[in-house]
Amino acid sequence: MGIPSQPDRCAGAGRTIAAGELTMAGVQVGKRIIGADAPVIVGWDNIGRVEGGPIKQFVFTYFQPAMLFAAILFWYYAPNWLAVASTAIAIRLGWTILLLVLEWINPRYKSWQLTWKEFATDAFYVGLGMTFIGMMESYIGDGAIIDAVQGAFDWDKFAWFTGLPLLVQAVLISMIFDFGQYWMHRGMHNWYPLWLTHAPHHYITQLNVNKGAVGNPVELFLIGLGIGGLFDFLPRAFLLAGAIGMTVSVYQHINVRFNTPRWWRFVFNTVEHHSVHHSQDYEATRSNYGGTWIIWDRIFGTCVDGEAEVLGMDGGRRMDLGETMVFPFREGWRSTKAGLARRFGGRGGLSPQLEPAE
Predict the structure, then answer these.
(1) In the sheet that 306-307 helps form, which strands lie side by side, from edge to edge?
(2) Do the Cβ atoms of 43 and 306 come closer than 8 Å?
(3) What pLDDT is recorded for position 6?
(4) What does the pLDDT average to over 221-239?
(5) Residue 147 above 70 pLDDT?
(6) What is the CA radius of gyration of the chain?
(7) Fewer CB under 10 Å: which end of the chain, C or N?
(8) Local structure of 72: helix, strand or coil
């Protein structure tokens, strides 16, 4: 199976064709044609804006930066008895409720509005992540890896890091963790076995605040692996880095219309970027792999600035919970049988191998 090569240029940087809403003929971005399979908007000129009076405009322009700065200030100055993991969990719960309210007040797209069925499905995956997958992570995932690595190194050699200002430590931890997430995510789009675990997540047809938890448990386990936890011996910096990640990456899967500041879009991954990644357009999905920092995509040439409304795979077919659980194993078995049949001259009749939607 051939995997198309990655683009060599970030959209919006040196593009010779004007940005705008794409026709089905598509627009060239670097070496690729974006929007040939499904409508995508490239660039920021034609992105929708918040409708309403000056107060609403102000709130939905500066909400994201204000919440980030508030989180940084809280974790920077909170007393030690309050700066603990249980506080972070409580804040995340309240934060999720607030964002669900914002989805109802100011939706980005009506076609993404949350139904009770979608809400119940999302809640199941959130619960799965907090219980079974969380337990597996602690025993055989990043928890076990971190314990082993921390026990094997002389961390006194990294005393220079602890001497850095607290906020600098937190930003570096966040960027290091996201660097690992970028390559894990990109690997899932470029190696077929990993793609099989990730593919169910690309069957979501709308973005809502808890959609990041939707997927096959194997993928959710793998995507949770990261090296940021190596720094948990710096509890305040570690919690501050987590706050940065939470108050930025949560906006990837959200149905809220923001007038996102351009500087924010340049530095951070946004719902606009992530909607392109989830587009039904194949070439558009080969972009925007970062979790928090879109600058990794800009550096490695996988960034596409823009927005898409039409999401999913197979023409927008919604994958049910049962199929999500068995999909990697079923398709992996079918592909294995097909490969053996080709190798040893067996007869076909087997379903074709799915191509990764990079």
Answers:
(1) 20-21, 41-42, 306-307
(2) yes
(3) 34
(4) 64
(5) no
(6) 21
(7) N
(8) helix
